[in-house]
Amino acid sequence: MDAQAVASTLHALSRWPQESGLHEAAWCLAARLGSAPLEWSTFEFGQTGQIANALARLGRDEDGNAVLARDVLMGVAVHLELYPERFDSAEGRHVGMLLKAFAQLRMHDALRPLATPALERVMTLCQEGRLREEPLESVGTLCMGLLPLARSPQLQRHRVRALQTFDALKPVVEHKIDAYLRQAPGGAGARAGLRLKEGDEACGTRCPALSLYQVLKAYSVVAHQWKPRYISGERESVKTHQETLKQWVRQTLDRTRPLIETDLQEKSWNLIAQIEADDAILDALDLRLASAAHLEALTTRYPPRRFDLAARHESLRTVVGNVVPPEPSGGDTTHVTVDLRDGSWSPPRRPTGRSLRIRFIHA
User: Fold this and answer.
1) β-pairing, 358-359 with 344-345?
2) What does the angle CA 18 – CA 267 – CA 247 come to, to the nearest 5 degrees?
3) How many CB atoms lie under 10 A from the CB of residue 333?
4) For 7, which of 28, 124, 266, 354 is 20 to 30 Å away at the CA?
5) Does the bond joining 37 to the residue before it have cis omega, within 30 degrees of 0?
6) What are phi and psi of 104, to 5 degrees?
């Protein structure tokens, strides 16, 4: 197979990682990448981005697959570090796919030598107006790919340039969102997908809620990071521009909230709560729950459970000076510990094999 066939095949196989046969075939193909006759120099930049995206899918779970994906992707990083001029031919969507793949596999260290040529390429594309042909979906991917450069402590030396790049990209993003909202809702444009355009401005996306979520997530971070400690210039001017960014994020959220919440539902609540809380980030949950509209929607979907606290409290009491063991089920409560990857752990067990139960007793 030639380079294009390899990239397309691996991209297709990665869409069904749960199928054991396809999964095995994908890794057999990925294992050959980087060595003859599939050296990285034989792939165009767009094909390399496609392969990186496929590897990120295959290594999504933190297991042996993630290790294999990182090993192959590290070969890409080494090649691009040796040949940074390859970014000169990259399209915006390809840069976004590549950087996003490194971010998904938490390979921030590997981004250090790639950050400068990637940011310079995006800045050039913005200045030359060459992102007009990129759909909204590709711009959302680009925002997520650039995001680690603006907030990761491991990439702090590139933070200033990343923030400046985001600022140069903002008019492009703004125009595409405006064009999409004018063309898509309630019309035939909603079914046009990536083909949707307004004049010569591409603004299509196959998943509008996700693309808008990605843009809002990226620029909420950019607005938070736009501080005098990172941005040179008069302090008041920096603060004014920061407030302008925050206001744009809030206004964009207000315009797109129904679309985002209808599609992503609970997945979007965390980001929306952070944007609404602004600087009071520690009160984001309380402010979110204090919203009458949200509280009504939440209680409708998840009705609260009612119980008589006074009666339960009284059942746990004993006569003063006459402490007696509670009933076998009195005061029992079950605790389930959930790890960061949504897995649950079984409660600890006694040496006899019986599960330990935690009991609260009020004397």
Assistant:
1) unpaired
2) 140
3) 8
4) 124
5) yes
6) -65, -35
- Locus of tokens 């521009």: 241
pLDDT tens digits for range 306-348: 777 888 777 777 777 777 776 666 666 666 665 555 555 555 5
For the beta carbon of residue 82, count every other beta carbon within 10 angstroms: 12
Give the C-alpha separation, 202 to 193, whole Å: 10
142, 73, 134: which is closest to 106 by C-alpha? Answer: 73
Q: 212 is written with which tokens?
A: 């808008």
Retrieve residue 314's tokens. 């009284």
CA distance 81 to 114: 6
Query: What one-character DSSP code corresponds to residue 233?
Result: S
Taking CA 53 as the corner, what is the angle to CA 48 and CA 57, rounded to the nearest 5 degrees?
Answer: 145
Instruction: Give how far the C-alpha of residue 345 lies from the chain's centroid of Cα atoms, to the nearest Å.
Output: 26
The amino acid sitting at 120 is E
Q: Check the CA dihedral 162-166-167-168 and report its sign.
A: positive
Distance CA 177, CA 175 (A): 6
Q: How many residues appear in the chain?
A: 363
Which residues of the chain register pLDDT less than 70?
Answer: 62-64, 185-191, 265-267, 269, 274, 276-294, 326-363
Three-state DSSP class for residue 190: helix
Cβ burial, residue 55 (10 Å; 0-12/13-18/19+): buried
Helix locations, the chain, DSSP H:
3-13, 20-30, 45-58, 64-82, 92-104, 112-127, 136-151, 159-183, 208-225, 235-264, 269-277, 284-290, 292-301, 309-315
In tens, the pLDDT along 44-73 reads 999 999 999 999 988 877 666 888 889 999
Structure tokens at 294: 């949200």
Asked if 143 contacts 214 with a C-beta cutoff of 8 angstroms, the reply is yes
Structure tokens at 89: 């031919």
